[in-house]
Amino acid sequence: MGIERVSWAIFLIWLSTFQGYLLLVNGGFNYKEALTKSLIFLEAQRSGKLPSNNRVPWRGDSGLDDGKLANVDLVGGYYDAGDNVKYGLPMAFTVTTLSWAAIFYEKELKDTKELEHVQDAIKWGTDYFLKACSRRKRLYVQVGDPVEDHECWIRPENMNTTRTVLKIDSKTPGSEIAAETSAAMSSSAIVFRRIDGAYSRRLLNKAKLLFHMAKSSKGTYDGECPFYCSFSGYNDEMMWAAAWLYLATQKSMYLKYLTEETISARITEFSWDLKYAGAQVLLSQLHFQGRDKLETFKNHADSFMCSVLPDSPYRQISLSPGGFVHLRDGANTQYATGTAFLFSVYSDLLSQHKQKLTCGDKEFSPKHLFDFAKSQIDYILGKNPENRSYMVGFGKNPPKQPHHRGASVPTLKKGEAVNCGMSFVYWCNKEEANPHELTGAIVGGPDRNDKFVDKRTASSYTEPCTYINSLAVGPLAKLASLHN
Ligand SMILES: *[C@@H]1O[C@H](CO)[C@@H](O)[C@H](O)[C@H]1NC(C)=O
Ligand SMILES: *[C@@H]1O[C@H](CO)[C@@H](O)[C@H](O)[C@H]1NC(C)=O
User: Fold this and answer.
1) pLDDT (tens digit, 9 = 90+) per residue, 428-447?
2) Would you say which domain of life the source belongs to (predicted)?
3) d(Cα 58, Cα 45) in Å, to the nearest integer?
């Protein structure tokens, strides 16, 4: 072996070790790819007439008669998860959290060339909400009959189930849905302000009306039960909606509402049902910018962080042995992506204002908070005891059997008759990979012992949800712009 070849070999060894080291410090993940894919999943959840730039080749138009049973146009919007029902509450939460990511991580999303995809994902929801609240003092909150839908394992393009339409109004109140939809409209109004002023004003106008509606006839709606019952009531959504309206309008009436009428609670969960922690982090931003009256909310945000951080003396939340946030089985990853989002935002706020987090006798740097957010995302992408990815079509050994009708039923002919009874035998209970890859979907994930079952029928492990992904967009954008 000549001398040059030896040094070349040493150089190659050095290079591969060095690259290995780089991979280790970065967690070894292509965050930009994960970010791109997480947004492609939302395109797979679209209902209605799909635009030609839809990036999921196996998806087609569906739900084109939605709303007809009530003589309204309710075509569009999103299916929430693996079935074909359009639920207003989680759909609105998906849009609000996407808007928050688009506002707070605008620069990171621009850097990674994903801002427009996030805006498109938001608009797919807000175009639908504009239809759903086109009549005064009324909001359509659901299309589809969950019982009938759950008795038929069929892709949305071929569904032939009753598309029942549900609404709230002064006689049938639903303050949590009206308020969450208001939050979706005011947060997205901020997103579109500089892109399309007229559209943004329309959204903000509806946001105000919906908030008023939520406030003037208070009550919890049980029409989305047992699937999306607001177990926590509407106080959290009222606070969240008022916070977003205050951010969007700067009007003192919303500040007054927040400081005089809001009930703020210390809760360690951020999810489609519980928004206290989100509102507290959002209002902390305004407190840092000088609104003294909002100090309570900042204190509550601190206490959220202290009750979740693993090495905090006040930790309450349960983590799996592998270090993953685990609150309950079934779409559990939403609690991890939600936590990651809030930790990521709060760490940036603390760092911008040169502050630290104090939990009893311990102090934590903003970087420490961000590292915890990153640990949750890395776990999902493959750094976990099972050494597998929980994002479909990403990384090592990703799920092959997501619990999802669209992805698990092969493309059928238009109008082809389907036997609902047999549909489970043909397509659901089969021990085979889905015929279509549900790219970018983060599934429900492992149990409290880090164990995972990749079976379509085990929905608590394998079902994806739009809000699991929407909550991951912010931290993924930040990680992608830092590392790629
Ligand atoms: C995952 O990888 C680690 C480190 O390489 C190894 O010790 C562990 O046994 C692996 N776990 C499984 C379930 O394969
Ligand atoms: C749809 O359902 C109706 C009523 O149950 C039935 O008459 C019709 O044949 C079905 N169409 C298809 C394409 O399955």
Assistant:
1) 999 999 999 999 999 999 99
2) Eukaryota
3) 12
Give dist(CA 336, CA 269) in Å, integer: 9
| Best CA proximity match to 285, nearest among 206, 349, 189, 191 | 349
Indicate if ligand 2 lies below 6 Å from the C-beta of 417.
Answer: yes
- Name every residue whose Cβ is closer than 8 Å to that of residue 237 and which is 6 or more positions away in sequence: 175, 176, 177, 179, 180, 183, 214, 230, 275
In the chain, the domains with their CATH numbers are 50-231 (1.50.10.10)
73 and 130 in contact (C-beta within 8 Å)?
no
Which phi and psi angles does 319 have, rounded to 5°? -115, 150
Ligand 2: does its nearest atom lie under 6 Å from the Cβ of 415?
yes
Q: How far apart are CA 250 and CA 253, in angstroms?
A: 9
d(CA 347, CA 361): 19
Place of tokens 């954008």: 477
Q: What is the mean pLDDT of the chain?
A: 93
Whether the per-residue pLDDT at 217 is higher than 80: the answer is: yes
User: What is the 24 CA–ligand 1 centroid distance (Å)?
Assistant: 16
CB 317 within 8 A of CB 327: yes
- Sign of the Cα torsion 384, 386, 391, 394 reads positive
Residue of 387, 397, 449 best suited for mutating to test ligand 1, as the one with most atoms within 8 Å of CB: 387
CA 279 to chain centroid, in Å, comes to: 15
* 320, 446 Cβ separation under 8 angstroms: yes
Between CA 126 and CA 472 the distance in angstroms is: 20
Is residue 18 within 8 A of residue 412, CB to CB? The reply is no
- What pLDDT is attached to residue 68? 98
- Cβ neighbour number for residue 178 with a 10 Å cutoff: 34
Q: What are the pLDDT digits (tens) for 253-273? A: 999 999 999 999 999 999 999
Q: Is 289 exposed, middle or buried (0-12, 13-18, 19+ CB in 10 A)?
A: exposed
Which amino acid is residue 387, in one-letter code? N
pTM above threshold 0.90: yes
Q: For 467, how many CA atoms within 13 A lie in the half-sphere containing its CB?
A: 27
So what's the pLDDT on residue 96?
Answer: 99
For 342-379, how does the pLDDT look when each residue is reduced to its tens digit (9 = 90+)? 999 999 999 999 999 999 999 999 999 999 999 999 99
Written as six digits, the tokens of 217 are: 């006839």
Is 454 one of the annotated active-site residues of the chain? yes
The ligand placed nearest to the CA atom of residue 386 is 1
Contact 357, 350 (CB under 8 A): yes
Measure the CA–CA gap between 458 and 267, rounded to whole angstroms.
29
CA of 384 to the centre of ligand 1 (A): 9
